[in-house]
Design goal:
Helix 1 runs antiparallel to helix 2, helix 1 runs antiparallel to helix 4 and helix 3 packs antiparallel against helix 4. The chain has 6 helices and no strands.
Length: about 160
């Protein structure tokens, strides 16, 4: 009788340890994904929405690429698919960000992190905050020609080259 009780306690303890380990593993994976998803947006925002100096550009791009590649490994298939759509669209549209694609990427990350399909109920369309490269360039052009009554396209091209 005592051996049966002792056997039950041992089995229950082992089962509890296994379940606790599995839950901890799931939480560690979720935290890792969350960290990489935050890094993706942090590095993306720095690379695209701020004016990185030329000497910093390689470092910024390398950090962003590393984060992007990590998400290829750890992200759910929906996250990877939406990240690729978002990134491809930026390249095809000269750096313009499609807020609908950004929102779909964020939503897929939220589902991947919290495993709740209802987490995005009433979730709005989102956008990045900050100046993008086109806004910065436009400000530079306007500042360079602020004392002139009109801006000649030829003068702008001479001063700023093919960046416009």
């Amino acid at each position: 009788m005592i051996s049966n009780i002792l056997g039950f306690v041992v089995v229950a303890t082992v089962l509890l340890a296994v379940l606790t380990f599995k839950q901890k593993l799931k939480e560690d994976i979720r935290k890792s994904k969350e960290e990489h998803y935050f890094d993706f947006f942090k590095n993306f925002t720095y690379a695209v929405c701020t004016k990185a100096k030329n000497e910093e550009a390689d470092k910024v791009y390398a950090e962003f690429s590393c984060t992007y590649n990590k998400i290829l490994l750890i992200g759910s298939s929906a996250v990877v698919k939406n990240m690729k759509k978002f990134w491809d669209n930026i390249h095809e549209n000269n750096g313009n960000i499609d807020n609908d694609l950004l929102t779909e990427l964020v939503k897929s990350m939220r589902i991947d992190l919290y495993k709740d399909k209802n987490i995005n109920k009433d979730y709005p369309t989102v956008n990045f905050i900050g100046k993008n490269q086109k806004t910065i360039l436009l400000e530079q052009i306007l500042k360079a020609f602020e004392n002139q009554d009109s801006i000649n396209k030829k003068d702008v091209i001479e001063k700023f080259g093919k960046r416009i």
